[in-house]
């Protein structure tokens, strides 16, 4: 579901849990960890209408809730076009699972849902990047049909890291 003011308490709790586990960046959260919730909501609403340029792309950010108990399980973002920056780091899709709910299949379900949505809105090819050391996320991407492309060393937040790139061909799914 799209973020709305009624979900901001849940977003605060999600961010707090991620921070308590040492997460420096919440993947697919539209920078929710850096902004006050109201400003974050304004930002993700604006991102849906951005023009396609070398530095901007329309993007949709989704909150993922568990139906059983209404818990915010994760978030994901679909970026409709790659910018100069997201070609190197970010790709078309980012997703995050609440730390206490990892290893239970939620990452796979979130990625399956966003891939289906991407296909429904007419996207045919997507790119996802994963930190080389993030084996659980690599498994999710591969389980969902990501085809390994290459690994590159990039500079991020003042440090060097190896990033694996995966491609999805939505025409064949």
Q: How big is the Rg?
A: 15 Å
Percent of residues in β-strands: 25-35%
CATH architecture of the domain at 5-122: 3-Layer(aba) Sandwich
Number of helices: 5
Mean pLDDT: 93
Query: What is the end-to-end distance?
Result: 23 Å
Classify the secondary structure makeup into a structural class.
alpha+beta
Under CATH at level 1, the class of the domain at 5-122 stands as Alpha Beta
Order of helices and strands: HHEEHEHEHEE
pLDDT < 50 runs, ≥5 residues: none
Walk across the major sheet and give the strand order: 1-2-3
The CATH topology of the domain at 5-122 is given as Aminopeptidase
Major sheet characteristics: 3 strands, antiparallel
Number of separate strands: 6
Shape: globular
Give the CATH H-level superfamily of the domain at 5-122. Answer: Gcn5-related N-acetyltransferase (GNAT)
**Level of helix content?**
25-40%
Q: Any overview of this molecule?
A:
It contains five helices and six strands; from the N terminus they run ααββαβαβαββ. The chain has a domain at 5-122: 3-Layer(aba) Sandwich (Aminopeptidase), CATH 3.40.630.30. The strands form two sheets. A three-stranded antiparallel sheet has the order 1-2-3, with helices on both faces. The two termini are 23 Å apart. Helix content is 31%, strand content 28%. With 173 residues, it is α+β, with helices and mostly antiparallel strands. The mean pLDDT is 93. The protein has helices spanning 8-20, 37-47, 84-88, 106-120, 135-143, and strands at 59-65, 72-79, 93-97, 125-131, 147-156, 159-169.
């Amino acid at each position: 579901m799209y973020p709305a003011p009624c979900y901001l308490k849940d977003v605060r709790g999600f961010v707090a849990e991620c921070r308590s586990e040492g997460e420096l960046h919440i993947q697919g959260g539209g920078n929710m960890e850096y902004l006050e919730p109201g400003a974050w909501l304004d930002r993700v609403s604006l991102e849906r209408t951005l023009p396609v340029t070398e530095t901007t792309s329309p993007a949709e950010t989704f909150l993922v809730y568990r139906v059983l108990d209404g818990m915010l399980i994760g978030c994901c973002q679909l970026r409709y076009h790659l910018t100069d920056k997201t070609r190197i780091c970010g790709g078309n899709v980012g997703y995050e699972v609440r730390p206490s709910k990892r290893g239970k299949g939620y990452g796979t379900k979130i990625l399956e849902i966003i891939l289906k949505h991407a296909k429904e809105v007419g996207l045919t090819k997507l790119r996802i990047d994963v930190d080389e050391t993030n084996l659980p996320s690599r498994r999710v991407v591969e389980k969902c049909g990501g085809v390994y492309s290459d690994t590159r060393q990039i500079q991020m937040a003042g440090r060097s890291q190896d990033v694996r790139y995966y491609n999805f061909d939505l025409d064949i799914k």
